[in-house]
Write a structure and sequence with these properties.
Layout lengths: L1 H5 L17 H16 L2 E8 L7 H14 L4 E5 L7 H4 L8 E3 L2 E3 L1 E4 L2 E5 L15 H13 L6 E7 L6 H10 L4 E6 L3 H16 L4 E7 L3 E2 L6 E2 L6 H9 L3 E5 L3 H9 L11 H41 L2
Parallel strand pairs: 1-7, 1-8, 2-6, 2-7, 8-9, 9-12
Antiparallel strand pairs: 3-4, 5-6, 10-11
Helix pairs in contact: 2-5, 3-10, 5-6, 7-8
């Protein structure tokens, strides 16, 4: 009771005038309460992963967040790549800085219904490296989730760094109940080998796999219009079939995607009628369908549980 009275503040620890008198255990308990409170206002949490770098994972995450926001959802995107945060550059926010309040940090707004948070907002310049070990990265990710005014969100998209190390483990642990992971790969065998590890990782930490996205899948020649398999095609779909997870779709190579990302303009917000834009929209549709179906199953499961409990209560009354 004494601890609850002592730490009953909605402020984060650095802003609290009483934090100097709190022990580390009390501060950690306070952070955990703030984390639970923050997550309770976020309906769906999605992780975007890849087994290796260079497959366009951040491009997919950024455009997915924008696509959801353009459909009217309240969306947040957390750039959880501490060492290589690229989301602000892709969204044209690379000159923004975080603002602190007594209740925590304010995410940067791209749209009124799209909030962005990244380590890049805290660095002195774009060339400054983050030279941290695991515990420090876990701590900053906990802050990014608990001590940020995310508000009420329909979707929080977490863009994870490549691989299955510190950051994916921390996010899965901190959030607890992630709605699903989206695995991004390219069609080459090397990328597919690592993407399969990401699927197995998701299962190990009890995160449902929403599906695999095959990025850079084919290229249409701008001169003759023929399809060119620069990095092959179909590898992501084959891996999804073998691993028994959904295949969300393939995104062809498109120079306009590169121009949009480098220029800080979301590709899905363009007026393009390209196959790549249609692919992004179709992938968003499938993710929404996955979330809706999963929600129905959870409701059914809860209903079945109540009915079973009721029958047992009658039997043993």
């Amino acid at each position: 009771m004494e601890e609850e009275k002592k730490c009953n503040s909605s402020q984060d620890c650095p802003s609290c005038s009483q934090s100097a008198s709190c022990s580390e255990d009390e501060k950690q308990a306070h952070r955990e309460r703030m984390l639970k409170e923050t997550l309770s206002h976020i309906e769906h949490k999605l992780m975007v992963m890849s087994g290796k770098g260079g497959v366009g994972k951040s491009t997919v995450a950024a455009n997915l967040a924008v696509s959801l926001a353009r459909r009217g959802f309240e969306v947040g995107i957390l750039d959880a790549d501490v060492h290589g945060p690229n989301i602000p550059k892709m969204l044209g926010l690379d000159n923004e800085k975080l603002i602190g309040t007594p209740r925590g940090m304010l995410p940067v707004l791209l749209y009124p219904n799209l909030k962005v948070l990244s380590m890049a907002f805290m660095l002195p310049n774009a060339d400054a490296p983050v030279v941290w070990r695991g515990p420090l990265k876990h701590g900053i990710l906990q802050q990014f989730l608990a001590e940020v005014e995310w508000g009420d969100l329909d979707y929080l998209i977490v863009d994870l760094p490549p691989g299955t190390g510190d950051e994916p483990l921390s996010i899965a642990h901190l959030i607890g109940q992630v709605d699903g992971s989206i695995i991004v790969t390219t069609p080459q065998e090397v990328a597919l080998l690592d993407s399969r590890k990401a699927v197995v990782f998701s299962r190990m930490v009890h995160v449902p796999v929403m599906g695999i996205v095959e990025n850079m899948s084919g290229f249409k020649c701008p001169h003759c219009g023929k399809d060119i398999d620069l990095f092959k095609m179909g590898g992501g779909e084959k891996a999804a079939r073998e691993l028994q997870v959904p295949f969300l779709g393939r995104i062809p190579l498109d120079p306009d995607i590169v121009k949009a990302c480098d220029g800080g303009k979301p590709f899905v917000a363009s007026e393009s009628d390209s196959p790549a834009l249609k692919a992004f929209e179709a992938i968003t549709d499938r993710i929404l369908e996955f979330v809706n179906q999963r929600g129905k199953k959870e409701v059914t499961s809860k209903k079945e549980s109540r009915e079973i409990y009721s029958r047992l209560s009658e039997k043993f009354r």
